[in-house]
Every structure is written in structure tokens, then in C-alpha cells.
Amino acid sequence: MQTTSFRGFFRIGLVASAAAVASAVLGNAASAAVRADVSYGVPAGARTPSARGCAVVYFDLGETLVHTAADSGISYLPGAAAYLRTLRERHIKVGLITNVPSSWGKTDAERAAALKKEVDGAWKGPAPFAWADFGDRILTPRTEAERKPAPVLWKRAQAAAHGCRLVYEGETAKETYVAASLGYVAYQVGRPYRPAYFPARVVEWLAYGSRGRA
């Protein structure tokens, strides 16, 4: 039985620079990718790939893709729906790495179904949330000890990546730091004077250098 509201599990984002995090942990390649986002471009001399390599963009949910308000329900954050549509059009896979109560189910599928019910039940907006884009790539804690910022969920995503490059986008500096330390290209959303989300063209550039194939 669901006794805890999904919205109660969202946290307020911490202030930090995702560019500095990626530079410190991932080195020059990630640093170049994060710097390139300022102009929505790719590093000098790089060519945007068409069908080579692969990348998967994982997101936190609350205050990353959707806003949760106790009085007005749940809705897309500005730019989120358009960004997901852009990734879809470029055939870039997406997933969720998000905290929900472990009591919501015994499997990821069961917990994802409970999450969808919570979100859809409070949803406000002209279009529903794009659950179909995420497929079975919705990772949630099996135990309370697995809750982020514990690294377990990011490691589970890595195990299923088959060599694809991984990007993580979230609103808290602590989570982006953990993701970067595990080899993700991490991007903190909601920062002033920066793109709302990690540019899709840069994701394609990252995919070009991956070992895997979508």
C-alpha cells in the first residue's frame, strides 16, 4: 500500500557547478563536452554523428523534468517536454534514476508502475508525461539503503549500458558529483546562465566515441 507521497521524496537542489564536477572527475573529454554546452555546439573540429555509437541520458525526475507543487499538482518544468522530444527525434535513449519508497514494489517494474500512478494522478498540463520514451529504463531503490546519493542505481544503469556513453542530469550537486565519479557525464540542471538541459548535439558527440551500439 502506498502510504508516502511521491512528492515528499523530492529534494531541493544544492548550488554547485556541474562543469567543475565533470572537469575534476572525468578529465578533459568531459570537460570539453560540458564547456561546449554554453553555445549549444560541440568541441571544435568534432562532427555530429549520425548513426554511430550510442548514449543514454538518465534523469532524476522531480525538479529535473517535472515540478511538484503541493497545491497545483505535477507538471513539466519549462523546456523539459521539448528536450525529451529532441532526444527522441535524434534516437537518443533516456532513462530515470529516481528515489521512490522501496515499499512501492518488489521489482523495478512494480515500483515504476506505482510511480506512474502517482505522477499521472496529480498531473497538470496539456500533454501527459512521456513515459513511453523511458521503456524499462526506470531505476528505483530496492531497499532504503539504495536511495540516492548511494551509488547503487547509477551502477545498475552502467551494467545495462553495453558500452554506451552515459549522461546523468539532475538538480542536486551531490547527485551529479556521485554520477561523475562513476564515469557519467553529469550535468546539474537549474543553474543560471546555462542551458536548461545538456544539449542534445553534445550527447550525439559523446555517443560517437562510445564502444557500444544502440
UniProtKB/TrEMBL annotation:
Span of the signal peptide: 1-32
Annotated InterPro entries: HAD-like_sf, HAD_sf, TAT_signal
Keywords on record: Signal
SUPFAM superfamilies: HAD-like
Protein's name in the database: Hydrolase
Organism for this UniProt entry: Streptomyces rimosus subsp. rimosus
